Amino acid sequence: MYNKPITQKAKSPLKQTKNEPGKITVDNKETIKGTPPSAGNLIRNVEYTGAKDAGVYDALQKELDSGFGKRKYGFEGTDVKAYEQMKLGKMKNNVKVTTTGTPGTPGTPDREEVTSTDIYTKDKTDAITPYAAYQNRVVENREGGSLKRKARKALNSKARDYAYETGDGEDAGIIERFTSNREQMRDYKRGMAEGMSAEDKKEARYLRQTKRGANALQTDLTEAELALKRARDQRAQGASGDDAVISNPRLADATDILKEDVQGQIANTEGDVNVNSPAEMRYNQNVGIKKSSPMKKGYFKGK
User: Fold this and answer.
1) pLDDT tens for residues 190-206?
2) How far apart are CA 77 and CA 79, in angstroms?
3) What mean pLDDT, rounded, does the chain reach?
């Protein structure tokens, strides 16, 4: 075995994570002033504690007279009380330090704050006549009924074929074979027949749902909702025939950069225009490769 270095393959910055273009925003950078540091007002009080009776002062006087205080502590002078305070200061157990006042604060540095404003636009959609909308509903209902009938026929055909392939032998009577076939067809339609594969059960379930009008396509109300909204928008905007209907506002993307309403919002919004490209976000996900890296094409140009 050998030691293999831990490496990471960088994702291509040119490969987008999404196919849709990035949305347009106007980013306004503002510098927020920080707070200056405060020195505060702290007062440090030092209090020396210890015995102050006559016997102690006599002992201290002897230390001064013998020169011990000068040799041990470097004390100059003959004041016994001053010598006592100096000596007690050297003894940590006899010192009480208290601090009063207001402590200082380190302050905060200046920071940049970015405010992003989304840009919106509206689309023009083709209006249709009421008769054209009626024809669309007729075709939808007709094809929906046809789909149900075809699903029912297909399910019955596959169930009969299964019952025929797994039917009772020739020794069985007519009534027994008829009853057995009916039970086998019923079990197949329910997806409970013996020997059915997972694919057969899935197909039988889809056909059952389709003949009852319960598959994903038949229960999808998106088209009906859009048709109803388009009709209401058309009526609210006074549009009819081949007039254009204006949609509700939506977020503008890079393909809308030249629209008049987009340019108007950009002109009236303070800040810099930014198109949030998915390729740019993918580039920022790379680890260890920066935009100024020698691996980037054109890095050595002009150097």
Assistant:
1) 988 888 889 999 999 99
2) 6
3) 78
**Tokens representing residue 62 in the block:** 């002897």
Highest-confidence range of 11-25, 235-249, 283-297, by mean pLDDT? 235-249
CB atoms within 10 A of CB 245: 22
Interval 74-121: pLDDT, tens: 777 777 777 777 776 665 555 566 777 777 788 888 888 989 999 999
Which amino acid is residue 255, in one-letter code? T
Phi, psi for 32 (deg, rounded to 5): -95, 120
Which alpha helices (DSSP H) does the chain contain, by range?
A: 54-66, 68-73, 80-90, 130-165, 174-190, 198-211, 222-236, 260-267, 278-284
Q: Which residue has the higher pLDDT, 72 or 31?
A: 31
Phi, psi (rounded to 5 degrees) for 31: -90, 120
Whose structure tokens read 């054209």?
Answer: 132
191-201 core/surface letters (b: 16 or more CB in 10 A; e: else)? eebeebeeeee
- pLDDT for res 13: 47
What pLDDT is stored for residue 1 in this prediction? 46
Beta-bridged to residue 46, according to DSSP, are 97
Q: In this structure, what token pair is assigned to residue 285?
A: 């996900």
Q: Which amino acid is at 77?
A: G
First to last CA, the chain: 43
> In sequence order, what are the beta bridge partners of 26?
117, 273
Residue 61 to residue 38: CA distance in whole angstroms: 47
With both helix axes pointing from N to C terminus, report the angle between 130-165 and 222-236 in degrees, rounded to the nearest 10: 170
- Residue 155: name the closest of 118, 210, 78 by CA: 210
Residue 46 has pLDDT above 70, yes or no: no
Q: Render 125-136 in DSSP notation, one character per residue.
A: EE---HHHHHHH
Supply angle C-alpha 66, 67, 68, rounded to 5: 95
CB atoms within 10 A of CB 162: 22
pLDDT at 17: 47
Instruction: Please check whether residue 84 is in contact with residue 90, taking contact to mean a CB–CB distance below 8 angstroms.
Output: no
